[in-house]
Design goal:
The chain has 283 residues and is an alpha/beta fold. It has helices at 57-71, 87-92, 108-117, 119-122, 138-144, 170-179, 196-212, 248-254, 263-269, 274-281, and strands spanning 2-9, 12-18, 20-26, 31-36, 42-46, 49-53, 77-82, 100-104, 131-133, 150-156, 180-189, 215-222, 230-237. The protein has two domains: 2-53, Spermidine synthase, tetramerisation domain (Spermidine Synthase, Chain: A, domain 2, Roll); 57-281, Rossmann fold, CATH 3.40.50. Bound molecules: S-adenosyl-1,8-diamino-3-thiooctane.
């Protein structure tokens, strides 16, 4: 067995054993590696950071998608930015009311390799007639999209380094606001409160979004393979409140079986630890 090791802070590392290094290449955008191990199954990393593995992907993909649909069950048009593994699109496509899903992923190679090595997230996504693949930069995509053209934008991006940086800017969040309709919701990558480098990025995202959207909240989930295991998404919207407007009975009546998300957890996820609240409010 060999070890994949990721630097979580200056003096903290996280390692996962693997049996096979399935694939390694440098795309025009980033270093891509796929591994096969016992504990987490097949997993892939971008620029040496864990993105998706077979064992805990359900947590991330449940949490990026379902809270928005519980808040507005009438969502029809969805833009996924990043998300090249297909897991976010897979969850969105489970809603029969969804009419269109655009995947604006910068690196087509991530999508193609996931089709090959990670069918758990990628299988069936391209074949769904509601799916539109728009490979390219997510920032450029929103800049060119018409006003009020989406009900939901899911920013399923890497951390704010290299290609992912543009997706943490005020310019990007403003464009998201413009392309969302009156009930529009933006869910975005909100990093992690624990290790200081990630906490700085969390605060930066917060400061910017809060200035643009009238409703801007943050919710948490437990992701064993992301630094510290404690991760956040931002929930921003033009008019809908994720607690007041979420109707548990309506979402439960849709009848989706989920392994992590449920409507009780929905309420709890928005209750943040005091140190996280303080860090977010200090911005
Ligand atoms: N579903 C969880 C997987 C990811 S991968 C994030 C994707 O965002 C990658 O495929 C990357 O190519 C894509 N991406 C990065 N920048 C851009 C951009 N500017 N436009 C479009 N796509 C982009 C998320 C993992 C989260 C890890 C948290 N530590």
């Amino acid at each position: 067995m060999s070890w994949y090791t990721e630097q979580w802070s200056e003096d903290c590392k996280f390692s996962v054993g693997y049996e096979k290094h399935l694939h390694s290449e440098k795309s025009p955008f980033q270093q891509i590696d796929f591994y096969e191990g016992k504990e987490f199954g097949t997993f892939f990393t971008l620029d040496g950071l864990m993105m998706v593995n077979e064992k805990d992907e359900f947590i991330y993909h449940d949490m990026i998608v379902h809270p928005a649909f519980a808040t507005n069950p009438d969502i029809k048009k969805v833009l996924v930015i990043g998300g090249g593994d297909g897991g976010t699109a897979r969850e969105v496509l489970r809603y029969p009311g969804v009419e269109q899903v655009v995947l604006a992923e910068i690196d087509e190679q991530v999508f193609r390799l996931c089709q090959q090595y990670l069918p758990i997230t990628a299988a069936g996504v391209e074949e769904d007639p509601r799916m539109e693949l728009a490979f390219g930069d997510g920032l450029a995509y929103v800049q060119n999209a018409p006003d009020a053209s989406f009900d939901l934008i899911l920013v399923d991006s890497t951390d704010p380094v290299s290609v992912g940086e543009g997706l943490f800017t005020t310019a990007f969040y403003k464009e998201c606001y413009r392309v969302l309709n009156d009930k529009g919701i933006l869910i975005n990558q909100h990093e992690s409160p624990y290790f200081s480098e990630y906490a700085e990025n969390m605060k930066k995202a917060r400061t910017k979004i809060k200035k643009i959207f009238p409703i801007a909240q943050v919710y948490q989930y437990h992701m064993p393979t992301y630094p510290s295991g404690h991760w956040l998404f931002g929930f921003a919207s033009k008019s809908l409140d994720p607690l007041k407007d979420a109707d548990a009975d309506v979402w439960n009546a849709i009848g989706l079986k989920t392994k992590y998300y449920n409507t009780d957890l929905h309420r709890g996820a928005f209750a943040l630890p005091s140190y996280v609240r303080e860090a977010l409010d200090s911005e």
